[in-house]
Amino acid sequence: MSFRLFNTLKPLLTCRALDFLTSSNPLLTCRALDFLTSSNALLTCRALEFLTSSNAFLTCRALDFLTSSNALLTCQALDFLTRSNPLLTYRASDFLTSSNALLTCQALDFLTRSNPLLTCRASDFLTSSNAY
């Protein structure tokens, strides 16, 4: 039975399926993330939390995927990733402000409030790239 059909027929088992697939076969992790976040929005947060906490190398990909494919999750993804993985704060700032101009002010507000060391950099970026 395909994973897609499995999830359609047994939605309650999806979380367990994610746990099993990502822990027993790392090569399936990216596919599991793509499938779960695109087909079942309610699982997106759990998928993000599980994947980023258990596989640090997937954190950047998770951020890219969630913020580009589901705009409503951008703030939540930023909040989770920067809080749980401080090393991603700079990358999150770069990604959000360069790829989604409408989020620039919001990203600046969040990042400078939660990470004071970013204030000067954020100021430099915004004043040079957005004169208004």
UniProtKB/TrEMBL annotation:
Protein name, UniProt field: Uncharacterized protein
Organism, as annotated: Plakobranchus ocellatus
